[in-house]
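Researcher: I'm preparing a figure for a lab meeting and need a structural model of a single chain. I don't have an experimental structure, so a prediction will have to do for now. The sequence is pasted below. Please return the structure as tokens so I can convert it later.
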Amino acid sequence: MPQGCRLHSEADAAGDFLRAHVGLKTDIHSLGICSDTHDEAVKVADLMQKRGLTQLLLVTSASHMPRSLAVFRKAGINAIPVPCNYTSSLNRVGGRYWLHLPHVQGFESFNGWLHEIVGYWVYRWRGWV
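Model: Understood. Here is the structure written out token by token.
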């Protein structure tokens, strides 16, 4: 990391923004910086236990949901999945239904898919799912 830079979690940045620009008055509980989904699940489980919470909505990308849900449930969290940010193979180039030309979006979709497949294998190997 370059000298003079400090790590700042996305949640902390969002909280700062909401307090400064929206005038949000409610408490925001930050987990700090999480190194991966497993780290986040462990921190969420601890926070839920301290606050006496028994269930939560797990909101994440649809492509990431299977691994996230498995990790959160393995951490003992009763999570209700709320997938978002769906992608579809219907993103096509060409005006005819039978014409399917490759495009950059396809590489991005493949990258996301491969990341989740390999990630799930690694998490299973580590015993996190």
